[in-house]
Amino acid sequence: MTEPLALEVLPVLGLPEVEPDTDLGALIAKAVELRDGDVVVVTSKIVSKAEGRMVQAEDREAAIDAEAVRVVARRGRLRIVQNRNGLVMAAAGVDASNTAPGTILLLPVDPDASARAIRARLQELTGCRLGVLITDTFGRAWRSGLTDVAIGAAGVAVLEDHRGRVDSHGNELHMTVTATADEIAAAGDLVKGKATGTPVAVVRGLPGAVTTEDGDGVRPLVRDLQDDLFRLGTSEAIRTAVTMRRTVREFSDEPVHGDAVRRAVAAAVTAPAPHHTTPWRFVLLESEAARTELLDAMLAAWRRDLRELDGWDEERIARRTARGDVLRRAPYLVVPCLVTAGSHHYPDARRAAAEREMFTVAAGAAVQNLLVTLSGEGYGTAWVSSTMFCRDVVREALRLPEDWDPMGAIAVGRPATVPQDRPEREVEGFVVVR
């Protein structure tokens, strides 16, 4: 991008109230003289009005639900959500400002498409090569105050990649990628204002930012979920962290980082436990040889049980044991074990059974902590109970102490596909109130 000698930010004054089906391109072209290389910055609210994206205010909560695809954080009635276009913002951009009393505005359905339509119309009417940004107001993590950002773009290079360039001291840049579209959006907002009825601005002096083609819109600005270190939001989003966990049965070939698993174990062992004990141990099978040795021994024991105890034939055995392939396909396995050292001893079966159940519940809590934390690290998991059916075989294969009881096995890896959304369950079928 060519460095500008000077930058001008001009408000577009005198625009009338926008109604549904307003030709925004014609409206803007009539109100301002545009030059080649200008970027026209348009507040999303007038785009929404022109596209008829207005609903009654009493439907606000339902509108937010309809616009949101994921709740990132919640505090009281405030929700930070991700909408269908990947934008993470308060209330999915549903807004009651600058609209008639009793109504609210939704964001444009496809802001990039809106930007392309306005650009095409402006270029048709002016003969100039222009860029168009659709903007909206965002809050920012760790920063007070609001700023405008680009939510739709056409004909604008939304990012400028400085990686590989050299700074003034001769240092090669490795990380710097500038969000040019957001910087232009914020500059335009300085002259538009929030309450002055000036919804359009022109940023002049950045011809290198304007492209011949419409481009990819703002999609390059939206960080992919797997690369977002803060996708779970604030502590109010812990519930989301739990509910986003999925059982994953197909994994990519990407290796699992042992440090990530150890961080998950550190979270796992904060689970509640009886008598101030620490009844969990986690066997990390990081080598393929260790995984194969264990799974081969377990398969032999499983086949033997089905043949000798259940009387199954070989064909039926083969079909049934194929279900265990999820463990073989995983690049990493964890075997959680229960250790009941510190438990109380009772002479009767009733209390002895209850004592063991206390420790078993603690083991389950630790396993859940592990699964949720690994999900937060971007890994998929599948808890499989099979080690509980052949504990002696597992102890022998892994050379574990006799008092370690394997409590299933956990397959870990990057999901091969994006897990499907899980519909939210109603709690009424699971609770009894007294």
Descriptive overview:
The protein is of the alpha+beta class. It folds into 2 domains: 8-236, 60s Ribosomal Protein L30, Chain: A; 245-430, NADH Oxidase (3-Layer(aba) Sandwich), CATH 3.40.109. The protein has 12 helices and 17 strands. It has helices at 24-31, 44-50, 60-67, 111-126, 180-192, 238-243, 258-268, 288-308, 314-321, 325-329, 349-376, 391-398, and strands at residues 8-11, 39-43, 54-56, 68-75, 78-83, 88-90, 103-105, 131-140, 143-154, 160-161, 177-178, 200-204, 280-285, 332-339, 380-384, 404-406, 409-413. A 5-stranded mixed sheet has the order 1-12-2-8-9. Strands 13, 14, 15, 16 and 17 form a 5-stranded antiparallel sheet that branches. Strand 5 (78-83) and strand 6 (88-90) form a beta hairpin. Helix 1 (24-31) crosses helix 4 (111-126), helix 7 crosses helix 11 (349-376) and helix 8 (288-308) crosses helix 9. The model has no long low-confidence stretch (mean pLDDT 90). Keywords: GTP-binding, Ligase, Magnesium, Manganese, Metal-binding, Multifunctional enzyme, Nucleotide-binding, Oxidoreductase, Potassium. Its EC number is 6.3.2.31. Residues 15-205 form the Coenzyme F420:L-glutamate ligase-like domain.
Average predicted confidence as pLDDT: 90
Strand order of the largest sheet: 1-12-2-8-9
Backbone structural class: alpha+beta
Work out the number of β strands. Answer: 17
CATH level 4 superfamily of the largest domain:
CofE-like
Largest sheet: 5 strands, mixed
Uncertain residue segments: none
Number of domains: 2
Rounded to an integer, what's the Rg over CA atoms? Answer: 29 Å
H/E topology pattern: EHEHEHEEEEHEEEEHEHHEHHHEHEHEE
CATH topology of the largest domain: 60s Ribosomal Protein L30, Chain: A
Strand proportion, as a percent range, falls in 15-25%
The percent range for helix content is 25-40%
Domain Coenzyme F420:L-glutamate ligase-like: 15-205
Domain Nitroreductase: 243-414
GO molecular function: coenzyme F420-0:L-glutamate ligase activity; GTP binding; metal ion binding; oxidoreductase activity
InterPro entries: F420-0_g-glutamyl_ligase, F420-0_gamma-glut_ligase-dom, F420_FbiB_C, FbiB, Nitroreductase, Nitroreductase-like
